[in-house]
Amino acid sequence: MSFFNFLRHRAAVSKPQSKAREWRDAIVFAVMAATFIRWSAVEAYTIPTPSMESTLLVGDYLFVSRLHYGPITPQTPLQVPLTHQTIGSTGLKSYSDLIQLPTYRFPGFSSIKRNDVIVFHVPHEQQRPADLRTHLIKRCVAVAGDTLEIRRGQVFLNGQPGAVAGQLQTTYFMQVDAPDDAVRQALHEQGVVDYNEPDGIPRAVADPQTGKPGFVISCPARVAEHFRRQPYVRSLTVVDYPVALFPDVADFRHSGALSARPHGWQLDAYGPLPVPRKGQVITLTPANAAVYYKIIAQYEHNEGVSWQQGQIWQHGRPLTSYTIKQNYYFMLGDNRHNSEDSRFWGFVPEDHIVGKAVFVWFSLDPHADLLHKIRWERLLRPIS
User: Does the residue 254 lie in any domain?
Assistant: First the structure.
């Protein structure tokens, strides 16, 4: 019997599938197809925090392209949102007990460019495999090989002003004579939002330095200029947030690794800081060791690395030079005073990049009534 006759015979004698089996096979196929598309091509995300406002709003739903930079193979075979509790229920003691595979990035059709809005694995959740970490979305303001500096809130790259993209927001204290409902209505009409308030409208507070009444607001420059022209506004000043930033804190939230020579940089006055590139040979000194500590100790999987006396040690000896194994990027949120980004935890490794945010496909206003819940003007809006 020929092969084709065998197939015809099998088809003739096989029993028709039951409806239940047809449904099962269809569901399995749909799940497999959706999983493949999600891993290799596009994935949907929602914006939960205001760190990218006004470019992206809380309640925006995005499509993120993995094809731009190339899809990366999973590090863990079963990507599930495990917690310490669920790990314990499966008999695993920690995330390190999960099966973890080497990753490979397939070729993409675009390289990572300055001002791309990018989704990536958060770098500082080292207790989890990379593909089980929280996803963040920020703007890439500097690529590998750039030297970044922020002067009075303006980004400079390699000594020149960087191109401004998106709709940047700054946080101000707006002093007013009477912080009444009329002022709050004006804030609402100008799109000023405070997501900590039930109705989204900022509440009146006192300036901690002067005791004068007013509002802490985050808004783009055009809105700030509008309020400066209003007769009820006495002053509009940028809020200063003194914080300890990278690389003075070399390992964000996870160790006592502090720079031996602090820089004292702040949110609007930061750098200059070189962004490492693949193949670059670094001479390590106490002055720059904190910049490269996480790269050497965590991101590039070197053994025997520790932080001692303000220096990087490996196998019991101070490390004096190192060759960078992959490219790195510097990310900022467009809401510059309300974004936990590379200023806090440093560079994003190339193997942490998930994809490029392409467009907003849907958007819901969390503070609007039912009739105005959908932000129709944001549907299918490209992300710039």
Answer: no
